[in-house]
Amino acid sequence: WYTRVMQQLTTEAIINEPVEKVWQYYTEPAHITKWAFADDSWHAPKAENDLRVGGRFVTRMEAKDGSAGFDFGGTYDEVVPNKKIAYTMDFKNGETPRKAVIEFQELGNSTHVKVSFDPENENSHELQVTGWQGILNNFKAHVEGN
Description:
The protein contains three helices and seven strands, in the order E-H-H-E-E-E-E-E-E-H. It is α+β, with helices and mostly antiparallel strands.
């Protein structure tokens, strides 16, 4: 037998706000609904977040025209306030569990956010990075604009 080694994909952004604010906006449902979508034709009407190891999160992402939508959820594996979040995404039986890690690095009054995630098999890596980077860009705009 063999162990499948999956190369994680990565997106990054420098957010011109202190790490405490960046963390708050990344983890509070009232803020998650304002940024958790890849482009302006989508929105996130609902988010729930139990931010602790073993806690669960789910964010509803939908096309504004109602043509598509899905719940993005998972279970937290590690939570280090203002530094790191790691989780396992929800998966169907038979699927390989996918993981993600979000790292917050304080840079004075700015914060470097790095999101690393296991790719899925349906879409190209380029498309996945574009989507996750779009979400991170929305997050940056929301934090810096509020």
